[in-house]
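Example 9 (inverse folding). The structure is encoded as follows.
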């Protein structure tokens, strides 16, 4: 059991100074003052420190992305210690451009490893292309029968995508929706949205042609399509902004109007190629970093906007979009996923009631230093 005293609590809404009692991996009590005398209980004095839910990153290339500039350009897998050091306690892993050398089997294995270490993690089947790469041979079966898989990834409006027709996307979304109803999962169709001017016009067309609930269609990389992002939010959709460039300013603008529907994610360990003007050659290469979720949250927290609003984008909004039960909030009976920070420095990260970071030091991994 863990008792956190004197927390300046954002749950993510601001609750003032509170004590938090943790036991059995869950939050037991949140009160003005808690006094407990039990053998083995660990007490943390959080006086003067911000306490908020563990961060949730809904777009992570857990086994690495890339390969667009040859095999040497494949980005390495993401280590669990880097995840925890960023204050992230939950994530959704996925594939990217490369659905050939990267497989859903490998991705799910990595997600299982994260879970063994103490993180909460899920996966999306599929990659950029249609038909989708899968583990079982069927997107619907992957979602229904593989515990970790909660949806599918696909790319649109990108020169590297397979240019699926709207009819193909409708059939894919229908399969995902039915599987979600059977399995009780989110059933998200996670759209990588490229730089093409078409943006998410196909998503609007899906809504026009069908009775598909808008929550199933989740576009990411929407910082480059702000007008469409506002239109999508106005009909009840969720919008994800990638932590890059002026993402904090764009997210802040949308959050002010749609406080429950905007998320931030990192594209961590995905490749960030820089193309020449006609997209015929890569002239530079970078990669996303999981730490950017904390960096961009810090920008929002110091920008003067309401801190609770900033925190929603990486906690409760993300949990709601992905239907992650027990996640994104600090309240009784929720999972004990908590960050304790002194200014911008993360002092403790607790996930499922256990320390992943303690006094600034992440717990050991199996392959330290490899």
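The amino acid assigned to each position is listed next.
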């Amino acid at each position: 059991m863990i008792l956190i005293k004197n927390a300046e609590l954002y749950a993510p809404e601001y609750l003032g100074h509170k004590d938090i009692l943790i036991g059995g991996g869950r939050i037991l009590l949140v009160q003005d003052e808690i006094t407990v005398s039990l053998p083995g209980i660990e007490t943390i004095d959080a006086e003067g420190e911000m306490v908020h839910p563990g961060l949730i990153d809904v777009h992570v290339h857990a086994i690495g992305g890339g390969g667009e500039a040859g095999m040497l350009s494949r980005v390495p897998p993401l280590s669990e210690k880097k995840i925890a050091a960023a204050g992230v306690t939950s994530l959704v892993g996925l594939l990217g451009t490369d659905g050939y050398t990267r497989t859903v089997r490998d991705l799910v294995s990595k997600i299982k490893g994260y879970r063994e270490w103490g993180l909460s993690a899920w996966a999306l089947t599929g990659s950029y292309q249609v038909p989708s790469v899968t583990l079982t041979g069927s997107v619907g079966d992957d979602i229904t029968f593989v515990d970790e898989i909660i949806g599918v990834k696909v790319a649109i409006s990108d020169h590297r995508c397979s240019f699926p027709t709207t009819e193909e996307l409708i059939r894919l979304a229908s399969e995902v929706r039915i599987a979600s109803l059977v399995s009780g999962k989110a059933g998200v169709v996670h759209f990588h949205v490229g730089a093409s001017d078409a943006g998410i016009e196909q998503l609007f067309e899906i809504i026009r042609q069908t009775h598909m609930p808008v929550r199933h269609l989740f576009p990411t990389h929407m910082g480059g399509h702000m007008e469409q992002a506002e239109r999508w939010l106005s009909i009840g959709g969720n919008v994800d902004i990638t932590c890059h460039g002026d993402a904090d300013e764009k997210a802040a603008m949308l959050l002010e109007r749609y406080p429950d529907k905007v998320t931030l994610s990192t594209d961590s360990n995905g490749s960030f190629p820089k193309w020449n003007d006609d997209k015929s050659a890569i002239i530079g290469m970078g990669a996303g970093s999981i730490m950017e979720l904390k960096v961009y949250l810090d920008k929002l927290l110091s920008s003067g906007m309401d801190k609770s609003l900033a925190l929603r984008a990486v906690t409760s909004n993300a949990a709601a979009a992905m239907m992650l039960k027990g996640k994104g909030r600090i309240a009784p009976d929720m999972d004990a996923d908590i960050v304790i920070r002194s200014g911008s420095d993360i002092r403790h990260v607790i996930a499922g009631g256990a320390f992943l970071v303690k006094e600034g030091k992440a717990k050991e991994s199996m392959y330290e230093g490899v």
